[in-house]
């Protein structure tokens, strides 16, 4: 069974969208009303659980989906933004400690802290090459980390206020979303070679691009500042189509011939058919941010 799980940062909840019916099947409340905000922001699947990195409570929550949504929490570090999982370890970006914290998911203990530059934001993994890439929002850089030797850390200068970096389908490039937030400039996506570690192409997009996702042919950019999504062809390196979503589009996930876009302003997820361009709005919690496709193994 496949679902789309959405972090609702302001309402401290996870919306689980059933993909066949295209509606919210259940909402997981991560916080009781008498507690301070936790701010779920990043999400990833781990076995039959989801791992959630929380901005405000500085912890990792583990939600066991097949055990009546049992929720456990573990302190990580200040201002957790995003995370990935690999070989029973969680790698979590901590914006205030300027590091990636590594947690052993068996013992649930911190086993490593990898230094980055200022305000690490997003994190992505290339499992084939055992490599991580982290965007450092306040130092205009990305950090590349070798998982085989975590002392091998490379910092590379990019454009202003990078918010997301992903690996291309061929794993030979890194695509970097440069938001230029706070300036009069449009944002850009830089295409950086993993051989030369130099930017080979810079594509201007719209206002405040914040997220990227890709398939084998195209990558997609969400522009938080003006409500548009771009489709960019990977080979031609040009914008092929632009879609008006409205609101403040943020996180994105591709599924078959659909793209799901979180509208941070209107508290909804927009499902768009990439063939017909038909759209459907799915109401979720307040301030949808991180999203992940979840596949559960039935017991």
TrEMBL record:
Could you say which residues form the signal peptide?
Answer: none
State the source organism's domain of life. Bacteria
The protein's matches in InterPro entries, at most eight in alphabetical order, are given as: Haem_d1_sf, Host-pathogen_enzymatic-act, WD40/YVTN_repeat-like_dom_sf
The name this protein carries in UniProt is 40-residue YVTN family beta-propeller repeat-containing protein
